[in-house]
Amino acid sequence: MGKEVKKIGVLTSGGDAPGMNAALRAVVRTALNNNIQVVGIKRGYNGLMNGDIRELKGKDVSEILGRGGTILHSARALEMLTEEGQKKAANIYKILGLDALVVIGGDGSFQGCKALAKYGVNCIGIPATIDLDISCSEYTIGFDTAVNTGVDAISKLRDTTGSHERCSVCEVMGRDAGYIALWCAMGGGAEEVLLPESKETATSENVIKQIIENRSKGKLHNLVVVAEGIGGSQELAKEIQEKTGIQTRATILGHLQRGGAPTALDRVRASEMGYMAVQLILEGNMNKVIAYNKGEYEAIDIEEALSMQKEFDPKMYEIVKVLSI
Amino acid sequence: MGKEVKKIGVLTSGGDAPGMNAALRAVVRTALNNNIQVVGIKRGYNGLMNGDIRELKGKDVSEILGRGGTILHSARALEMLTEEGQKKAANIYKILGLDALVVIGGDGSFQGCKALAKYGVNCIGIPATIDLDISCSEYTIGFDTAVNTGVDAISKLRDTTGSHERCSVCEVMGRDAGYIALWCAMGGGAEEVLLPESKETATSENVIKQIIENRSKGKLHNLVVVAEGIGGSQELAKEIQEKTGIQTRATILGHLQRGGAPTALDRVRASEMGYMAVQLILEGNMNKVIAYNKGEYEAIDIEEALSMQKEFDPKMYEIVKVLSI
Amino acid sequence: MGKEVKKIGVLTSGGDAPGMNAALRAVVRTALNNNIQVVGIKRGYNGLMNGDIRELKGKDVSEILGRGGTILHSARALEMLTEEGQKKAANIYKILGLDALVVIGGDGSFQGCKALAKYGVNCIGIPATIDLDISCSEYTIGFDTAVNTGVDAISKLRDTTGSHERCSVCEVMGRDAGYIALWCAMGGGAEEVLLPESKETATSENVIKQIIENRSKGKLHNLVVVAEGIGGSQELAKEIQEKTGIQTRATILGHLQRGGAPTALDRVRASEMGYMAVQLILEGNMNKVIAYNKGEYEAIDIEEALSMQKEFDPKMYEIVKVLSI
Amino acid sequence: MGKEVKKIGVLTSGGDAPGMNAALRAVVRTALNNNIQVVGIKRGYNGLMNGDIRELKGKDVSEILGRGGTILHSARALEMLTEEGQKKAANIYKILGLDALVVIGGDGSFQGCKALAKYGVNCIGIPATIDLDISCSEYTIGFDTAVNTGVDAISKLRDTTGSHERCSVCEVMGRDAGYIALWCAMGGGAEEVLLPESKETATSENVIKQIIENRSKGKLHNLVVVAEGIGGSQELAKEIQEKTGIQTRATILGHLQRGGAPTALDRVRASEMGYMAVQLILEGNMNKVIAYNKGEYEAIDIEEALSMQKEFDPKMYEIVKVLSI
Q1: ipTM, 2 decimals?
Q2: What is the distance between the alpha carbons of residues B262 and C187, in angstroms, rounded to a whole number?
Q3: Closest approach of chain C CAs to the CA of D99, in angstroms?
Q4: Mean pLDDT over all residues of chain B?
């Protein structure tokens, strides 16, 4: 059990993700339930460096469980990469009299935690990004919602692609990681998916070969998913059309996948992680990132969390290919 | 009352639209209910010219009421623009022993009806296009669904745009018509919309001026809708960002808006129009386009329908601007 | 042109409907755009009688366009049926220095307007109810959303009803009016619908006869829609199961249909009606209900509006029956 | 590696669940990819006992990935509880020349597998039920979709409950298990949930106490989730209204939660399980149930799977209570 906790801060950092608000609500409500005062810090670390804050009461987080985005706003904070910025942030943390800081964000945001820890700031990280590219956790807040948005979009494309016996190329988000693309491909029934994790096979030649093979088997329309980390959807669509004669259209989902009401899974996991963050603080179990691995939550040391490597399992890609015939 | 009707054909032509299947189902069921045999013609007029057909029974149209796209497939048919193509189509119509042909499509498809009528083909047109750009009708099948898909997408964009205090530029479909853009702008709460009907005011200067004005009034994020007929969203986003310093992202919805389960309105209107098409045939009231105007269905002579002009009401644009402050 | 308008009040009354917030936002923004101050009155007429109010600024209505319910809350106000209550309300209207009052609600709420008009209150009514049972208007705010919610629910029921070859009885809202039921039946592809407008044919005998007939034609599952004004779904399901041997389940949608984000149509119409309400006030064109008839908005005298009769068109029911085979 | 596999059967049994079709598609496509013929058995074990079957080709399962229900239909089969029925089924299995049988269903269906195994039938079970009440697996196909449907419904109820400052009681499915209720409560932000796993605390007294307490803290509306296994929602709503004076409405979601397009998670997991089922058959690894535990798939002996006990973790309930203030 740690020393008495009276006041904590919370911020959302990096790209926003559906479910951030649910996590925030859980942090605030669990804290208030333990008589801890909560300070909301706006615009990520920028708000900490500039004292851009407001107290959060129970009512401030009512009706946000199901809302996309983050009511605290989010932003990148280049200044936090400098020693000066880190000192500034740590100093305001002390002036505010905070006992701990909950950071809802991705690996980049947790780097900030790691830096602040050196100046005596007690941090707890909650993994939130639609891209699933956080090394220490098999689950990240927002991924499930982004995948469902992608699958829903692909279903709509499939309708019109089928009517016109065309080919659709659909580019989904994910930055350098192919998780969203892979899940969208399997969930949407795509016959090919181009992933940054296997760049050598993600060529237009392979795609075109697959399309022609599938047409020869009687398929009347085609669906290809492209990960953001590969890109070039418009060019790919053009090449497919030129080389196969099949009318091909590209659609780039873009930021669409970043918004929307969070799914039930994202709401539940985000709520549980927010609750757990405050429990860790109450136990004095600081400078941890909460992770969800092998069906359970765990608290991992921030330094260790940031040094972990996530492996890409090629199995799922194989299954997409088998199911696409 | 016309002569006895024994057999009719039905096809979907031009760009597909959600609700085409609902109209098709209504045509088939109403016909069967009147002991009329129905032949489904595939891939628009191409199927008529090439005898690409299949009989449609009641079961063939069960479970399609709520499905996007068209089970008959659709396509453009360049050959139908030639006299030769038209004769070919009219000839097959006679060989099949059809008493009438129901064409579900847009003005381009109705031009085909007009041409075929000269060769003794009895046509009934049902207006279906997401673009609402059919001259004779205030309502077209698919528009309501496309607008709802657009508004839903804009709502998602709004979440992340708000979190990051950015500007979003969202390009929606509509070809040369701005109806979808206008409705999406009002339904999505956009502050500016660029329409092909008012190209002179649809400039980046105006948009940027509006954005800056709104920021000065305290607005923290911005949303601009661009009609397909204006285009250039990526360039506009870039210009906004350069000139205002506000991070700006473009999203092009594209064919996404063409798919999806039809809304209740599109299902109901499409069903009623399909029913009415067969009623007109039974009455011998041929070569008409069904229109929905002033809250009522009406049957308009095809030639007249194609010569009508749809006026663009500037009122709605004015209201968008007033509500955007 | 009327005398200068400086301050208006706005309230939502009766059962809430999706799109009320969109209308409210349009009233506030249009008023502010014309330098009119707006007072939000809470809990319907109760708030007027008790001075339960707050000023509404532009920011207060941002982010509400797409939210169900009403941020002003709504309630029935029995006291408004008494002369005393009416005088009290009219008095507070004067103390607040209001130039007009916008009432968003149904016929019951407009009765309040009629009463207040006698005491010098200038009212504008905006028709909002999911039930569509407002005499003077073919459209009411919320109906389209409620119908889409109903059709979506029926589609889900259809999945499991089909899997198990059962019969589903789905009861939808609408109070004494069958509009929601009729639209849900056609949009959901139901084979029978029981309406309060045709009570004599809405019998379990007819339903059972229809079900047996459809099974004999090869239909493997059944779907019956029951209007709230008929009720008794559980009993009907039981009777169907007993008399036909077909497993039958009843589902009562209830208040589910009252909530949810408004559809694009409800957002657009509500926005236009809110805008128009302020325009009427600016013109000094008082004590009107805004209606949408024959594809156009119109302003109808409140007394006249309340004396109008809405006829029930049996045509749509006939079409449902034809399409259900 | 087992002996050569040439022909397998597949059936869906028990209550249907969204994602059953996705699993079926994966079984068929993976089998065909390995040159195995697939026989679809209709209406669960009934089809096996009565030879109600049809061969499934690749095309038969296209466009079903995203459809709720099961194209093979499902049913309970009382006859399978008798030795006679089991012998009959095993006999037809042999006559058809099947090498294995894939059963998509719940624990009841796996009891059928266990019985058939004694007669030499090679079974693989895939866990599918919205109720999550399968002892051997932390995940079951359909649960995620049912929970999302529930949370979506609760969100709609919340809108109107908030507008009118009422209390809503929402009864969700789950039979004797409270998983759906618990997830819906946390995902929907309910303040109380009545679970069959803790019947002693699931009393109207506790609920009413909680409601009054929350109102005293400033909460303006209330939301209570009731599990099917507790039931009595109408009575509870009545009692709450009588004892607190707060207007209260009950909504019973019922079979609504059984339908709908499967979520991305249900599509992906079902696809992977279907794929894995055929892999196990190819390996000769028979009479197994596929389970998903601790973040991984595993194959558990049917007898063992059926003897396992699933524990109910009270933690999640505690968190719901903390977050509800």
Answers
A1: 0.97
A2: 9
A3: 26
A4: 96
